[in-house]
Design brief:
This is High light inducible protein. One of its GO terms (cellular component) is chloroplast. The protein is mostly helical. It is built from three helices and no strands. It has helices at 2-20, 63-87, 91-94. The termini are far apart.
Length: 107
């Protein structure tokens, strides 16, 4: 009797696990800035009346710059492959370096 109850519990728990393990697409709320506050302000210091609002940076390591950099790298890599396919030679041979002669210290 107890064995059957354990088996039924295992089968029911495995079915709930498989249904809950499925990923669900839930829209995320937009991310908010993290506010760090001290437990108590030091003496002689007052809290600011307004929180400063800084505009999103336009230069540096921002998402837009990283996307452009990645796209330029992909275009450059595909262009190099295209040039090598048309010339039937590797890129290093095209710029004048000799390749394919081994390491130069054969016995």
């Amino acid at each position: 009797m107890q064995v059957q109850q354990r088996l039924s519990m295992r089968s029911s728990s495995s079915s709930t696990l498989s249904s809950s393990a499925r990923p669900t697409l839930v829209p995320r709320a937009p991310r908010r800035a993290v506010t760090v506050r001290a437990v108590q302000l030091p003496s002689g210091v007052s809290a600011p009346r307004r929180t400063p609002v800084a505009p999103e940076p336009k230069f540096g390591f921002v998402n837009w710059a990283e996307k452009i950099n990645g796209r330029a790298a992909m275009i450059g890599f595909m262009g190099t492959l295209l040039v090598e396919a048309i010339a039937h030679r590797g890129f290093l041979e095209l710029i004048g370096l000799t390749v394919g002669n081994g390491l130069g210290f054969e016995l």
